[in-house]
Amino acid sequence: MKWSLPKHYNRRIARAIAEFDLIDDGDRILVGFSGGKDSAFLVYSLAVLQEHLSLDFDLRVLTVDLGFDEEADYTKLEQFCNKLEVEYEVKETEIARSVRQANQPCAKCSYFRKGVMTNYCQDNDFNKIAFGHHYDDAVETFLMSILYSGQIKTFRPNTYLSESEVNVIRPLVYLREKEIVTAQNIMEYEAVESPCPYDGDTKREEIKELIQSFADKKQVFYNLVAAMREGNEIELWPEELSREELKDEVNNLWQ
Ligand SMILES: Nc1ncnc2c1ncn2[C@@H]1O[C@H](COP(=O)(O)OP(=O)(O)OP(=O)(O)O)[C@@H](O)[C@H]1O
Fold first, then answer.
1. pLDDT confidence tier of residue 98, bands split at 50, 70 and 90
2. Ligand 1 pocket, 138 CB below 6 A?
């Protein structure tokens, strides 16, 4: 294969693979490809690494056709995979119809999409699903979760789904989004537009702008990275008491 990855990208992806134990010998990995820049780079880098790593693993690329566009054409995606010599398949679904009336269409769509992929894994003997989430996605999700849901959490680079016995892996977690944008020249692929009418998650955009607004945005980004690590110092308020417990505690004060 004539394709290659610059050293810098190799190092970051290899770091994620080694640190989070993302790929093992004998793995069969199903790669989620939307046609966007992130998953295109994921397909590209896994195809290149398959040639160069000492690990022996299989790859197949899957696009879940969400059903938003009846005229959807996947030729460009297929040609990209052919060029990289990886198998490519499109799975048609009617997810669009089920999420149109939903309160949170994006969350529901992503849930159904993952369901389609795990079913595909079970039917075709794949043990891992790879997604193209990157460093900025992880930090933005962490901050969104605190600000909009009151929970301190983000997605993990490697998550075992016990019900379907599949691991979801995210090999690009150490790459910044701007590095992936630059990588479009390396892989000779132009991202296709998403057919989704809800594209452009406004909450995520808000968070992106917030991080960008700090004078020392790089330091702020890496402080958030530090905060989302287990083992980092945590000093939180005690758990909230139930209404009854609190009432008793307050009453005791007056006796
Ligand atoms: N229709 C789809 N079919 C298969 N996999 C998908 C699809 N949509 C998204 N994915 C996978 O889920 C990941 C996260 O999805 P999300 O919608 O957040 O994409 P994104 O950050 O816009 O990435 P991309 O640039 O690849 O579209 C993608 O990187 C890709 O691996």
1. confident
2. no
Architecture of the domain defined by 7-197: 3-Layer(aba) Sandwich (3.40)
Mean pLDDT confidence for 128-151: 97
Q: What is the distance of C-alpha 184 from the center of its chain?
A: 18
Determine if ligand 1 sits within 6 Å of the CB of residue 132: yes
What span, in angstroms and rounded, lies between the C-alpha atoms of 253 and 114?
52
Q: What are phi and psi of 43, to 5 degrees?
A: -60, -50
Question: What is the predicted ipTM?
Answer: 0.96
Ligand 1 contact, 133 CB (< 6 A):
yes
Mean pLDDT of 196-225: 90
The chain-wide mean pLDDT, for the chain, equals 94
User: What is the distance between the alpha carbons of residues 5 and 133, in angstroms, rounded to a whole number?
Assistant: 18
Give residue for tokens 């609190």. Answer: 246
Which residue in the block uniquely carries the two structure tokens 């089920």? 98
Query: What is the pLDDT at residue 105?
Result: 85
Q: Spell out the domain ranges in the chain.
A: 7-197
Q: Would you state the pLDDT for residue 61?
A: 98
Joined together, the tokens standing for residue 199 give 């594209």
Rounded to whole angstroms, the Cα distance separating 106 from 13 reads 27
Report the percentage of the chain scoring pLDDT > 90: 84
**Reported pTM:** 0.94
Residue owning the nearest CA to atom 29 of ligand 1: 132
Question: How far, in Å, are 90, 228, 230, 253 from residue 233 at the CA level?
Answer: 45, 10, 8, 33
- What are the beta bridge partners of residue 130? 31, 169
